[in-house]
Amino acid sequence: MYRSHRTAVFARRRLALAAVLTATAAAFLSGPAPFGMTNARAASAGDSAPTQSGANLTGSEDSLPAVVFVHGMNDTADAFTDMKKKFVEAGWPESDLFAWDFEGWRDSNQVNAMRFIDAVNSRFGATRKVAVVAHSLGSIPTRLAIQLSGRPYSPESAKHSFGNRIASWTSLGGPNLGPGQKWYVELGLGLACGKGILKDLVTASTCELNDGSFMELLNRAPTPMPTDYEEIYSPDDGVVDNGVSRLPDAPNNRSTKIDGVTHGDLPRNSRVIDHVVTRVKKFKDGAQVRPDSAFPPSDMSATTVTHGELTYVTSFRGAVDAKATRVRVIVTDSAKRIVFDQSVPQSNGRWSLPVDSTMYGGDFHVRVIETVNGRSYEATQTVRA
C-alpha cells in the first residue's frame, strides 16, 4: 500500500514538472524570445527616425576603428545587416566590418570569450583598434574577453592585451547583471539547467547567468579602462529587464534608453542603428595601442593645491613618446562631463595641461592620444586628484 502510494505521488510530481516545462517552452516559443531569439525580421516602418548627419569619413586603419558585431542566442550575423550598411554609408570600408557568427553560443561564455579573441585577432591582427557592438547574450563573452586580457595594466601586458585595444563596447539589451525576467529564472533556468532539456533555451551559456560565482567574476570590475562602455536598452524590450541590462555608472560607462523597440529588433531598429554609428564615430581618430607603449597609464597624475578643507586641481600631466608630434588630452569628470579636450605641447616626452579655472579635486578619466610618425596611439587612466 505504502509503495503504491509513494509511486503514485512520484508519478504526479513528474507529470507536474513536465507540465511546467511544457508551459515554459510554450511561453518561450510563443512569446518574446530570450537573449536574441528573433524571427530575423527587419525594423518596422514606424522606426524611421532622422538619420544623424555628419561628414563622411575616410575609412582606413589609421582613421577608423574596425567594428565587430556579435549576435545573441538563436540568431545569426544577419541581425546586423542593416547596421553594417549604415556604417558603410558613414565611411567604413566593408573589410573593416566583421559580424562574428558564433554557432557555439550554447557553450560556456568563458569558452566563447577566448573564441571571440581568436576570431577578432584572426580578422584584424593583434594591435588594430576595435569597436564592439553586441546584442543580447553576445554582450557576455565579449565583455568577459575585455576583462580577461591584460588586467591590471602593465607595460608588458599592453603588448598582448586584447581588452586594452577595444575602443568601445556597446551592448544592445544585454543580460549584463543576470538572466533578466523572474519567470525565466524560476521556470526555465531554475528547473532545466543541467537536465539536458529545452536545449535551444537553457544552455551552458544561459545557465552561467544564473550562476553566482560566474556573475561575480564578470561583474567584479564590470567596466575596466581604457574601453568606453554603453548599454542601450528599451522599456519595450519584453525579454531582458532593463535593470539587468544597465551596468553601474562610471566615468567610462553610460546607459541610453530608446523607447518603442522590442528585444529582437534592437540591432535592426533605425534609431538604434543611427545612435550606434554616431557613437562609434567618436573614435574616428583611429587611436591604437602601441605594443611597445612608453607611457603606461600610471605615469598620469594631477597636481593640486589645498586651501583650508578644499583641494583644487592645478594641472594634469603625463608621459608620451619623445617623438610625438601631437598630443591630445581629454579629461572627463565623475559626472561624465568633458572638462578638457585640447592639444598640448610635449617636451622630452612629458606633457602638462594647466588648469586655469577653479576645479575641485576628485576622480577624473584622462585619455591621452599621441601621434608618432603619422600614427595615433592612446592610453587612459582614472586619476584621483
**Overall number of strands:** 14
Unreliable sequence segments: 1-35, 37-62, 150-159, 286-298
Which geometry do the CA atoms define?
A: globular
Radius of gyration: 24 Å
Largest sheet: 6 strands, parallel
Order of helices and strands: HEHEHEHHEHHHEHEHEEEEEEEE
In DSSP terms, counting alpha (H) and pi (I) runs of 4 or more, how many helices?
Answer: 10
Distance between the termini: 78 Å
Q: What structural category do the secondary elements indicate? A: alpha/beta
Detailed description of the structure:
With 385 residues, the chain is α/β, with parallel strands linked by helices. It is 28% helix and 24% strand. The radius of gyration is 24 Å and the shape is globular. The strands form 3 sheets. It has a 6-stranded parallel sheet with strand order 2-1-3-4-5-6, with helices on both faces. The model is unreliable at 1-35, 37-62, 150-159 and 286-298 (pLDDT under 50). Helix 1 (2-30) packs across helix 6, helix 2 crosses helix 10 and helix 3 packs across helix 4 (139-147). The relative contact order is 0.13.
